[in-house]
Specification:
single chain; 2 domains; alpha/beta; eight-stranded mixed beta sheet; six-stranded parallel beta sheet; Urease, subunit C, domain 1
Length: 376
């Protein structure tokens, strides 16, 4: 069994919003692609030893709101190149909110089903720098029935996203119930102007009918949700609420601060909402961590990292996103950038500076092409 030892990390940001920090120096042992030990039990000999002195160890960041194409089929940008740069910036996992933007995208039930399968299979076998792309997300369409969801479950499609108006409340409830019967998480991606259920009197009413596990982009892609809808989501819903880098950052800060003050930090998930016409941002998740650090006195850099890692894994029911024994060893070792006045990575985050990523490990394997491989 091949083992890797990350030796003497300065600190560990755990990805657990309730226990966000383990002070170092501290070791992490990796075996068979998973975290095998942390702390004193991790020491000793290993096949590979990485000197992490002075570096922050943390889970690879998760982009909880991403729109992957299948393969490289897009006229807007080089999808594979963008994802490789995403890894170099410290993000190791993206979660699809639906494959939605390309010419001729099918809108009928069978087309949405087959597109979700195509996207899931494409990114399963083509992962730049081994980034994990959870692309198995089907866009809700009238006409999807239990048999369709059975097919989707068998091939690994694990999420249903409601983003276009469904014909009626009955259709919406039927789709959501069928998806949950087959183990899917239900995502709502609301629009301020168009209720997700035709005939519903408001966005809030439509969201109540869907009863999503996760409501993404509450701060908007173009325009944030109305204050009344946001307040209802904050106070009466238990759904995880996603804020997007491409939406209103003022509203994003307000939503995050409100959930922190309510003692519900687990409900916060962060994503870029990209790629889109608004932005292609490989380093977007680093920017999200910077954005929320210091929003309130409760948000330390380690907590902000947890919002961008473990919270997404928990909301979607997916493994990883935490530095914990038994979890996949998707890890980042980083520090303040060369020339920075900051003494460490945490201080650099507070200043709003970019982190220098020295190592990215996915499944315990250092990835080729990271900038640390170049001579300094």
């Amino acid at each position: 069994m091949t083992e890797t030892l990350l030796q003497s990390a300065a600190n560990i940001a755990t990805g657990d919003v309730r226990r966000p920090l383990i002070a170092g120096p501290i070791d992490i042992r990796i075996a068979e692609g998973k975290i095998a030990a942390i702390g004193a039990a991790a020491g000793g000999n290993a096949d590979t030893v990485i000197d992490a002195t002075g570096l922050l160890a943390m889970p690879g960041l998760w982009d909880a709101h991403y729109h992957p194409y299948f393969g490289d089929h897009t006229t807007q940008f080089d999808a594979r190149g963008s994802l490789a740069e995403t890894v170099r910036a410290g993000t190791t996992t993206v979660v699809s909110a639906g494959t939605i933007d390309f010419p001729g995208r099918p809108r009928d039930a069978s087309g949405e089903r087959e597109l979700a399968i195509l996207a899931q299979r494409s990114w399963l076998y083509d992962r730049p720098l081994e980034i994990t792309v959870h692309s198995g997300t089907v866009v809700a369409a009238a006409g999807l029935v239990d048999r369709d969801f059975g097919v989707l479950e068998r091939v690994g499609v694990r999420r249903l996203v409601v983003r276009s108006p469904l014909p009626s409340a009955a259709d919406a409830r039927q789709l959501v119930a069928a998806a949950r019967t087959h183990g899917m998480k239900v995502i709502a991606l609301p629009d301020r102007l168009t209720p997700l259920v035709q005939g519903s009197p408001s966005v809030a009413d439509a969201l109540g009918i869907i009863d999503a596990d996760i409501v993404l982009a509450v701060n908007g892609g173009d325009v944030a949700l109305p204050d009344a809808v946001l307040n209802d989501l904050l106070t009466t819903s238990k759904a995880a609420l996603g804020v997007a880098l491409t939406g209103s950052l003022t509203v994003a800060r307000r939503v995050v601060a409100a959930l922190m003050s309510r003692g519900e930090p687990e409900r916060i998930v962060l994503g870029t909402g990209t790629p889109s016409q608004r932005a292609v941002t490989p380093s977007g998740m680093q920017r999200m961590v910077q954005l929320f650090t210091g929003t309130t006195s409760a948000i330390s850099p380690a907590v902000a990292i947890a919002l961008a890692t473990g919270n997404a894994g928990r909301a979607y029911g997916l493994p990883g996103a935490r530095v914990e024994v038994g979890e996949p060893a998707d890890l980042v070792l980083c520090r303040a950038a060369l020339g920075s006045p900051s003494p460490d990575a945490f201080d650099a985050i507070v200043r709003g500076d970019w982190l220098e990523v020295d190592w990215v490990l996915i499944g315990g394997v250092p990835q080729a092409g990271i900038r640390w491989t170049e001579p300094r």
